[in-house]
Fold this sequence. Notes:
By secondary structure, the chain is mainly beta. It has a single domain (45-360), classed as 7 Propeller (Methylamine Dehydrogenase, Chain H). 3% of the residues lie in helices and 45% in strands. It contains one helix and 28 strands. The longest helix has 12 residues, at 2-13. Mean pLDDT is 89; it is low at 1-40.
Amino acid sequence: MKRLLFLAVCLLTAGCTNQSSSNPNGAAPGAAPAAAPAAPKEIPAGPKLYISNEIGDDLSVIDVGTQQLVATIKVGKRPRGLRLAPDGSVIYVALSGSPIGGPNVDESKLPPADKAADGIGVVSVKDMKLVRTIPSGSDPEQVAVTPDGKQLFVANEDVGAATAIDIETGKVLASFKVGDEPEGVNMRPDGRVVYVTSEGDNQVTAIDVVKLKLLKTIEVGPRPRSTAFLPDNSRAYVPSETGQSIAVIDAKTHRLLQTIKLEGGALVRPMGTAVSPDGKLLFATTGRGKNVLFIDTKTNMQVGQVEAGDRTWGIAVAPDGKTLFTANGTSNDVSIIDVEGRKVVAKIKAGDRPWGVVYVP
């Protein structure tokens, strides 16, 4: 009778375990697996941040309203550059099988590249999952998309090239030699010209998007990392990481207009750039310098800065221009910055080595 009562209590409370079993979950060998954990709460509607985690091989999804991590999406090796499709339906993410190098790294001692991992991942915003990978050429680092959503332009870092790709078919439309270690690739807002920065050759290459031909090469400061255009297509800003400066370029004639020397010393290493929706402010992250710089685009003068986080790199601006978001690589988090107040209002944990960030309305 005692045995029957004990079994009955076990059935009612689901409390029986075999503590003497070698199974770490306490179940007897051959027993049915433990029940699956409860389904996560429904992801709230509203704007999201997608963050590429270079070492984590995934994207973190953060809900802007609740300031919470709500999803993690596996995408492939070494995700870096991100770009939202014009219709907002998918995110393009540059994936690379090349090992992480960088300054002061002996690349001859790195493991061989996994070229099968190179590509542009296509992530569904609605379903929050990888739905396709488009062949992209070797070692893609950043990607740009035309305003009609039909073509991608990819910076192929280890072969000094840029590749134009038809999104629907995956066909390579053209390939361009652009200089050593191309990284930043960005589309002029009118979609007619794309700029590709080459770290190794200290230059920017302008490419005609419509005719698929090289237009001009512009010399800039050492290690240019990205490009940001004004909304009216008139100017481009290109940061020089080791030159502690930002080049101002006439985006119609593709000539250097001015070089902005930045304040703050050797740790001012401008990297990621973004422009406010009204075109009045340029924002630049500074990597190990931890700050985001504010540049007045009317005067091209530095007008402020905010300490954002450790190794700030990727940056995004909310559509109303009131909030900035930075990916902080060595602290594994994302900063939310109040533009008017010029202060960090929140930090949210992301994945392993956050690199890029894109805002999805």
